[in-house]
Write a structure and sequence with these properties.
It contains eleven helices and 42 strands. By secondary structure, it is of the alpha+beta class. It folds into four domains: about 60-225, Protein Transport Mog1p, Chain A (3-Layer(aba) Sandwich), CATH 3.40.1000; about 245-370, no CATH class; about 390-505; about 520-635, Protein Transport Mog1p, Chain A (3-Layer(aba) Sandwich). The chain has a seven-stranded antiparallel β-sheet with strand order 9-10-11-15-14-13-12, sandwiched between helices. The longest helix has 24 residues, at about 625-645. About 35% of the residues are buried.
Length: about 650
């Protein structure tokens, strides 16, 4: 080891002799310094990284920063900071790292200096744009499985925290790699006593690996002293912002309760809300709630846009409560359904302020009641605006009994009408109670005729309410019509709930006319013949165009999913558009009428195998084998992740 003073502050540095002539960040002054001394025989120049060690702040605030700032990244966010080592690794090359004296009980196998190409204590390059929370975020595929990197800085751009986020729970693989580099970490348990994080700490810097089981993984590197400085800077910023938020019982931010929101600010037309996400009151995001005439009845100031739980974790809520009590007097605690205090409220009888740790809300009580009345009035008007009452469809009336001559499937409690007597309708399904009263009527439409059908309904019932399926809905409070690109569903809501209960009692397996075995020359459960190439990643075999087009003219392409032992677990074919009606007719003839789901998928099934048809896709599936395939894919994904982490 070699020792030399910092060229900027004179502090003593200790480093490998091979690093003489390179530059590093001084742990004393934070500036870049030249490592000097007599140069050893040439063994190849190594880049030096100085380790500065510090205490951590919880991973929660950093995690929320990571998730939010994905939406705030600038074009410069795709540029990564320079790295001290030419290798892509979680930790910089240990052979080139400066060693700083530390307590022996904190000694790690390698020093902590940084990660993902960034150095703790080093300055973030000026070309990289940071958000108001002094963070820089970038997406990257260079450090898989971590696809999002967040760097937290001080006001002078010195890096204090580096966090990588993975959208999968890969903590076991990452932990193994970290233990090889730093030794055994300290497990951290959550409130349930389960280990949810592991920490490595050398007294000045720390690494924290945390995870949500089966969901996400976070890996954070922190300089403890710099993180404390960042927290102090944050406190000063918030304490400067908070007084500007409070104008008790009047409003805030230049907006006034009872006054109209300026016309240039766009309101969400469905709920009459304006979201202000500027940084003028960072870290608070602002929301104005208005009546239909744009008068403001409620104003929210919430910190969730940038800092998440900063207020609760750093006791800023006490600062806010003290400020409110100084302005408005003692507040009244409000308890939730579990009896816990969820917020504190102040009111002068006309207006109200409430505070709940992460948000501050101003309300005009009278205007709030007016908003409720306005909403209820609009709901009543929506029910009354039907041009005609909803009674039924396709010749069937809701609530009436189905004619005794028409057969009802005893297991499905449904009558199927294939008469094709109605324009645009391919088939009609009538759901009935055990006493034959009609609870719902469903018509299957050709998706190409959706716009035409929609015009017919709007002409009959008026403009409908958009639904989540890409269509519209009409309702009079008791009856409703749901239109989707593939279905028309007319139902009596009370009878339909009763029908669902009766059908749930039918426990026997749905009987098919023929058993499900396979399709397109392939049999579920049998092995794919040798010589046919199975893609190792997708586990799928795709017959060539000549084979598919010659033998099965109605389908192209065709795909066969196989297990590692080549057993076939699912077969998928894409139906040519002009053959959709022909294919479905053949399925009904072979297996009987299928069951329709809300999303338009028609299914046939027995205890283990199923057919799913949502034009133009037709799938044959052996469910136990397909579940086994999903497990194989998950295992292979984990193995690829391990290999990727080893190469970090």
């Amino acid at each position: 080891m070699h020792q030399a003073p910092c060229t900027k502050c004179g502090g003593n540095l200790e480093f490998e002799a091979e690093s003489i002539g390179s530059t590093a960040i001084c742990p004393h002054c934070g500036d870049e310094t030249l490592l000097t001394g007599p140069r050893p025989p040439a063994k190849g120049k190594l880049t030096v990284g100085i380790v500065v060690t510090v205490l951590a702040v919880g991973v929660v605030a950093t995690t929320i920063l990571t998730r939010h700032d994905r939406t705030e990244r600038s074009s410069a966010g795709q540029t990564r900071a320079p790295v001290a080592s030419s290798q892509r690794s979680l930790q910089e090359n240990p052979a080139s790292s400066t060693t700083v004296a530390s307590n022996s009980e904190h000694r790690l196998l390698q020093p902590i200096s940084g990660a993902f190409g960034y150095t703790l204590g080093g300055k973030l390059p000026e070309g990289l744009s940071i958000a108001p929370a002094q963070t820089f975020t970038s997406d990257t595929t260079n450090y898989m499985p971590f696809d999002n990197i967040t760097v937290c800085c001080l006001n002078d751009r010195r890096v204090c925290t580096i966090t990588g986020t993975a959208e999968d729970d890969n903590h076991a693989v990452v932990a193994q790699d970290l233990e090889k580099k730093y030794g055994q970490g300290n497990p951290i348990k959550d409130y349930d006593g389960k280990i949810s994080a592991i920490k490595w700490n050398d007294g000045n810097r720390e690494i924290e690996l945390s995870w949500l089981e089966k969901l996400s993984t976070w890996l954070s590197y922190r300089d403890i002293a710099l993180q404390k400085t960042a927290e102090q800077q944050l406190e000063l910023s918030i304490e400067h912002t908070i007084p500007r938020l409070f104008q008790p019982a009047i409003g805030t931010l230049g907006w006034k309760l009872g006054e109209r929101l300026p016309d240039e600010l766009p309101l969400d037309p469905s709920v009459h809300v304006y979201f202000d996400r500027t940084t003028n009151f960072w870290p608070f995001g602002l929301t104005a709630w208005c009546l239909s005439d744009r008068r403001i009845w409620r104003i929210d100031a919430s910190d969730t846009s940038y800092m998440g739980s900063v207020l609760s974790t750093n006791s800023h809520h006490k600062f806010i409560e003290d400020y409110l009590e100084k302005q408005c007097g003692q507040g009244a605690p409000f308890r939730d359904t579990n009896g816990a205090i969820s917020e504190t409220r102040w009111s002068d009888g006309r207006r109200e302020i409430s505070y709940s740790y992460t948000s501050i809300t101003y309300r005009d009580i009278a205007l709030g009641k007016e908003k409720t009345e306005e909403y209820e009035r609009s709901e009543r008007e929506a029910m009354r605006r039907l041009l005609q009452p909803i009674t039924g469809a396709f010749g069937y009336t809701l609530g009436e009994k189905l004619r005794s001559a028409l057969p009802i499937d005893p297991e499905l409690l449904c009558y199927t009408d294939n008469s094709l007597n109605f324009p645009f309708i391919e088939e009609v399904f009538v759901d009935c109670l055990s006493d034959r009263r009609i609870s719902s009527i469903t018509g299957k439409i050709d998706s190409t005729q959706f716009d035409s059908v929609k015009k017919v309904f709007e002409k009959k019932y008026g403009l409908g309410t958009p639904n989540s399926f890409g269509g519209e809905m009409w309702s009079d409070g008791k009856h409703q019509i749901i239109l989707t690109p593939s279905l028309i569903i007319c139902s009596d809501t009370t009878l339909y709930d009763q029908w669902k209960k009766e059908r749930a009692e039918q426990k026997s397996i749905y009987r098919l006319l023929q058993p499900i075995t396979g399709a397109f020359g392939y049999t579920l459960g049998e092995k794919l013949p040798e010589g046919r190439f199975i893609d190792p990643e997708s586990h799928a075999y795709a017959p060539g165009p000549a084979d598919s087009m010659t033998n099965y003219l109605s389908f192209f392409p065709i795909s066969v999913d196989c297990l590692s032992d080549r057993r076939i677990c699912s077969i998928t074919g894409t139906v040519l558009h002009d053959q959709i009606a022909v294919v479905r007719s053949a399925l009904v003839k072979k297996y009987g009428s299928g069951r329709f789901e809300t999303d338009g998928v028609e299914t046939w099934g027995d205890a283990e195998r199923a057919i799913l048809f949502k034009p133009p896709i037709l799938i044959y599936e052996d469910e136990p084998l397909y579940d086994q395939l999903k497990k194989e894919r998950e295992h292979e994904k984990e193995e690829r992740t391990k290999a990727s982490v080893r190469g970090l």
